[in-house]
Amino acid sequence: MRHKAHVLLLLTIAPFSTLAKGRLGLPNQIPEMPVRGMPSDDYATSQRPCYTFSRVPIAVEIQHLDFAFSSDPVLQGIDLSIDRGTTLGLVGPNGGGKTTLIRLLLGMLRPDRGTIRIGGMTPAQAVRRGNVIGYLPQHLQAPTGLPLTVRQVARLGLAGKTGMFRAVAADDLTFADSLLERVGVADLADKPVSTLSGGQLQRVYIARALAPRPMLLLLDEPTTGIDRAGQQRFIEFLAGLKKELLLTVIFVSHDLRAVSAICDRIACLNLTLHYHDVPDHLPPDLVYRMFACDLEAMGIRDGRVCMHGQSGSAAGQLSVVSSQLPIIDAATRN
Amino acid sequence: MVITVLAADAAYICELTTALALAIACAVLSVFVVSRRWAFIGEGIGHSGFGGAGTVWLIAAFVPAVDHAVWAPYAGVIVVSLATAWAIAFFTRSGKLNSDAVIGIFLAAMLAWGILAQQLYMRRLGHDPIGWNVFLFGHMADVAPMFAAASVVLCAAVIGTIILLEKEILAYCFDPAIAEASGVRVGFIHYLLLLLIALTIVIGARVTGSVLVPALLVLPGATALVLARRLRTVMAGSVAVALLATAAGIAAGHWSFLPAGPVIVLAMFVQFVLAFSLARLRSV
C-alpha cells in the first residue's frame, strides 16, 4: 500500500520534475570551443587583416545577424566573436542597435537572419540554464512593491539557476552573500531595498546578476546619468570584479570615455558593425562619423589599440590620454 | 458565548471554515496582487466571474441538464475568469492599448453580459437562475460542507504553491523582466498566480459576492504593506487583518440581519485606515 502511494506520488510529481533544471539534457559544462581564426569585418580588412588566434573558448559568437522591427532595419550583417574572459565595449549612437543586440543575446527577441551562440548555446538555452548570462538593464527598476531586504534581492538572481520545486544550494547562498561584501553593500544586507540610494541599488542589482556565477555579464549603459567621479568608481569596481570572477563582459555605452578605460576591445555599432579588432587606431574619422564630434574634443588623443591575442606581441588595449581617466596599458592591466 | 455557539452550531462552523480558509488564501495572494499592481486586474477577473456564471445560465436556459448541475456556474466562473486573464494579457501585449483600458473594457463587458444572460434566462424559463444574486452579493447561509472542504483545499493549494515556488514568485513579483532574463519561467508563474486568483474568486463569490471579492485580494495586503517592512511580517499582518475582518463579518452575518460580505470588506477598510494613521503617526 505504501509502495503504491510512493509510486502514485512519483507519477504526480514526474510531470513537474521535467520542469526542473538539469533534466532537460542541457550540458552542465560550457563546451570547449576549438581554436579558430576569424577575419574581422570589412573595414578592418581594408586596413589590415586581424585574426583572433585565441586559445580560450569563445563566449559569444554572432554570425550574419539581421534584425528589423517590422520594416525598420535595426541590425544588418552583424558578425561578432567575443573571447571568453575579455571585455567588449559596445558603443554607438542612440538608436544604433546596441540595446536591441542585448535583447537578442537575452533571447527576448529572435533574429530575422543569422545565428547567435553563447557558450555554444542558443540565447534561449543559455537563459533557461540561469547561470550563463547576468544582466544589468539600463533603467533600474525602483523597488516599489515587495518589501525585500538587500540580501533577499541579491538571492533572487539564483531563482532561475535552481530549478522549480528545488531549494537553492547552500554554497550558492553563501556566494550571493559574499557578493554583497564584494560590491560594498554588506552592511546594508538586512535593510529594506527601498531605502537605498541609486548607486547602492545598482550595486545590489549587480550582485543579483552575478549571484548565479554567470559566464557573461551584460551591462547596458551602467554609467549613464552618473557623474564623472561615480563613473570612475564604477569602472574601478568593475575591473576588480571581472578579474576576480573571470567574467566576460559586454559593456554597452554611448560614452566612449567610460568604455575605453576598461574594455579590451571595442565594437562600434550603428546598424552595422563598423569596427572591431582593428589593430591600430580607433580612427578619428570613424568616431566623428558615428558621434559627429571630434576625438580630441572628447579628450582622447593618440588613441592606440594593440593587436590582441597574438602570441609574441604585447596584448594591450585602448590607451586614453585624458586628465580624467588613468592611462591603462599592458603593464598596469596585468 | 462564542465558544458555546461554535460547539453547538454546525452550520456556523461550516460558514466560518469556508470564510476563514478563503481569507487566508486571499490575504497571502493580496501581498503579490498589490506589489504587482494587479488590484484592477483582480477587479476585472472578479467581475468576469459573473460573466462566466451568466454564460452557464444562458446554456442552462436551453439545456435542462446544465440547469440542474449545481457546480456548473462555478465551472463557468473559473473558465471565463482564466479566459479574461488571458485576453487582458493578449490585448495588452498587442501594444495598442495599455492594460488599464483593456481591463476596464472586459470588466464592464463581462458584467453586462452576466446581467443580460440573467434576463434572457428569466425570459425563457420565467424565473431567475438559481442563486444568481448569490454570485453578485454572496450568501453565507446554507453553505454546504463540500463547499467548506473546497475552500480549505484552495487555501492549502495557495499556501503550498507559495511555499514550493517561493523564489520564482518573489523574483517575478519583484522584477519580471530580470526574472525572465535569469531563467525563471515567468509565463508559467504569471498564469499560475492568475489561476489561484480565479479560484479564490470562485469561492469568494459565495462569501462576499463577485462585486466585493476583489477587495479581499487588495485590502489585507495593502494594510500590511503600509505598516510592515519585512516580507514575513507583511504576510503575517495580511493574514491577521483578513482573519479578523472575516470573523467579524461572518459573526455579523450569522447573528444579525447584516450581510457578511459588506461587513467583511468594511472591517478591512477600517483596519486599513487605522494602519495608515498609525504609519503616519510613526513617521512624524
Characterise this structure:
The complex is a heterodimer of chains A (334) and B (284). By secondary structure, chain A is an alpha/beta fold. Chain A contains eleven helices and eleven strands. Chain A has a six-stranded mixed beta sheet, sandwiched between helices. Chain A has a three-stranded antiparallel beta sheet with strand order 2-1-4, covered by helices on one side. In chain A, strands 10-11 form a two-stranded antiparallel sheet. In chain A, a hairpin with a 2-residue loop joins strand 1 and strand 2. In chain A, helix 6 (170-183) runs antiparallel to helix 7 (198-210). In chain B, 83% of the residues lie in helices and 0% in strands. Chain B is built from 15 helices and no strands. Chain B has helices spanning 2-8, 10-35, 39-62, 64-68, 72-93, 99-125, 132-137, 145-164, 166-174, 176-181, 186-207, 213-216, 219-227, 231-255, 260-283. Chain B is globular and about 60 Å long. The mean pLDDT of chain B is 87. Chain A binds chain B through residues 19, 106, 108, 127-131, 133-135, 137, 141, 143, 145-149, 152-153, 155-162, 164-165, 168, 192, 205, 208-209, 212, and chain B through 31-32, 34-37, 164-165, 167-168, 170-171, 173-175, 177-185, 188, 225, 228-231, 234.
Along the chain, the helix and strand elements of chain A come as: HHEEEHEHEHHHEHEHEEHEEH
Summing up helix and strand content along with how strands pair, one would put the structural category of chain B as mainly alpha
- Residue share in helix of chain B: over 70%
- Please provide the ordered H/E string of secondary-structure elements of chain B: HHHHHHHHHHHHHHH
Most extensive interface between two protein chains, with residue counts: A-B, 37 and 31 residues
Tell me the distance between the termini of chain B: 41 Å
Rg of chain B over CA atoms, rounded to whole Å, is 19 Å
The appropriate CATH architecture of chain B is: Orthogonal Bundle
CATH superfamily of chain B: ABC transporter involved in vitamin B12 uptake, BtuC
